[in-house]
Amino acid sequence: FFEYCDDLDFINIFYGDSLLNYLLYKSTDKGMMFAHSILLTKNVLTLNYSNAKFHYDTLNKLNIDLNQVHPKLLGKTIAAKVYFLLAFEHNVPLSFWDKSLEFERKFIYSNAYKNYYQQFYIELMPATSLAQRYDLTIYFWGKIFPHYDKLLEQVWGSDYERSKIFVANAYLELGQYQNGINIFNSIHLDKINNFRAISNSLYYITLSKFLLIDKKFTLALETLDKSIFISKSYNLPFLEQFAEVQKKKIVEASNN
To answer: Phi-psi region for residue 160, left (φ > 0), alpha (ψ -120 to 50) or beta?
Structure first.
């Protein structure tokens, strides 16, 4: 249940707390890898450095062959580490990305995971976007898009629809407005609404960027206020920071 229903919107409340019980009953290396990656993300989102550092160090100490880990779990773990590095060290080294992407080839050519390797990309896409590795976001999308309709039928189908938020943002940040707005307008909101807080907060931040380009400053600020409200309501100061930075850009642009 826990591994299939990782409800990040309630990560600071019911779901995050219940993971401690999960660890009591599943203390295998892979079980610990799953739980500590979620708990790491939880504490990054709340900017709790001491707890986040504990889970980050625990993940690094696990004696586990990463080549034998499911692509979704490995992507989730790498993404959690990216969030930690972004929040507290403000830098994700190129060597970290290079090492992480080495697993991609092993998944593609693995008989065990050849039908699941796209989930590795899906878990990493939010991390690449927040880390401003827009080249990787677009690269991952290129790997997913040819199989998109089929992937939507999977149990994690909404995850794939959510990825469009990050693809649209990447195209916009790379100066490809039309590609970005096309992707953004194709998002089925009923699917990402299943993720409520985190996805909607990031959706509004991305929407505000398009509104800024269109010089709709008032609407852009109102959109960001929605993102900030969601972040405050769910105690997500890590995401709130991104909204505040974007809000400052819009205020400066409107005053020029």
So the answer is: alpha
